[in-house]
Amino acid sequence: MYRFANGAAWIGGELVPVAEARIPVTDWALTHSDVVYDVVPVWDGAFFRLDDHLARFRASMEAWRLAPPEGPEVIRAALHAVVAASGLRAAYVAMVAARGQPLVPGERDPRRCANHFYAWCVPYVHVFGADAAARGVRLHIAEGVRRIPPDSVDPRAKNYHWGDFTRGLFEAKDAGADSVVLLDHAGNLTEGPGFNVFAVIGGRLVTPAEGCLEGITRATLLELAAAEGIDTETRALPRSELAEAQEMLACTSGGGPVPVTHLDGHVFANGAEGPVTARLRAAYWARMAEADWRTPVAYPSAAP
Ligand code: PLP
To answer: What is the pLDDT of residues 140-162, one digit of tens each?
Structure first.
């Protein structure tokens, strides 16, 4: 099989098969989860909203005082290079900034670490599985863990601090659900591991304002809803309000919007996809095909 068929990584200026990409055991990326990242989807041979993902990545790096030597053009070229090497037409493409190793082994000064950038891609990821849109997703609200507060780890910087999500995922899987949504300490919904959430309440599309990543799929859906004449509200969403919701949906670059049919004991839209979700899902996939939002991948002219 072609070396890069399962994906490729760009690390230290080298392209390697994704399964062979390595970072040192003393890198703070590993020892302290000291990493920010972003994920841009490639669909039908083009990046979707690449500049928005690059801008969010830059903001995440600044928030964490990460300054790898690779500048914007090197980062952009690395993203093209990994996808081009893999030949993938639909891919999950990650860009990562890591704190790196301390300049003096054992030193505890975050300003004195060799920050570095790497990128990798694998075949397109559907966070909830490829058939989630058809069957609907079952979510669980975690009882035993809350989202880490934004004044401890700001979720607007996309990061690898997933201890809260992982605990929540164990709870959800043990309860027979597909995934988890975490509340904040005031009892408002935040987000789940790899996705934002919306509820349709009285015909309005509501999504949490704070305590979550400002997801690019979430932004796309807010724009599409406005264009479709659906009222939107970005505000605190207390768990208690979900009892009145007609629909719920989850959204991510890894699969777009998907209907949530069950939230613990609550069933939305009789266990099927609701009409607002269906409209937004159709509009999302139409937008994924629009040239204005796409950056074609610089594939080599000869197929790999
Ligand atoms: N929330 C978290 C914690 C995420 O990790 C992600 C994406 O991976 C999202 C939300 C959705 O963001 P986006 O739509 O930009 O993929």
So the answer is: 999 999 999 999 999 999 999 99
Which pLDDT does position 304 carry in this prediction? 45
Beta bridge partners of 258: 250
Chain length of the chain: 304
Residues 6+ apart with CB under 8 A from 71: none
* Segment 76-88 mean pLDDT: 98
Nearest alpha-carbon partner for 88 in 148, 47, 142, 52? 47
Residues 259-285 have pLDDT tens digits of 999 999 999 999 999 999 999 999 999
Ligand 1 atom nearest the C-alpha of 155 is 3
Find out whether 172 and 260 touch, Cβ atoms under 8 Å.
Answer: no
CA–CA distance from 98 to each of 23, 120, 164, 215, 295 (Å)? 10, 14, 20, 21, 26
Q: Is the pTM of this model over 0.90?
A: yes
Determine which residue's CA is closest to atom 5 belonging to ligand 1: 194
Q: Which residues of 80-117 are buried (b: 16+ CB within 10 A; e: fewer)?
A: bbbbbbbbbeebbbbbbbbbbbbeeeeeeeeeebebbb
**How far is Cα 102 from Cα 76, in angstroms, rounded to an integer?**
27
Distance 205 CA to ligand 1 centre (A): 18
Alpha carbon 204 to its chain's center:
24
Q: Residue 250 — very low, low, confident or very high, per pLDDT cuts 50/70/90?
A: very high
Question: Does any ligand 1 atom lie closer than 6 A to the CB of residue 255?
Answer: no
CA distance 275 to 279: 6
Q: Which whole number is the average pLDDT over 273-302?
A: 95
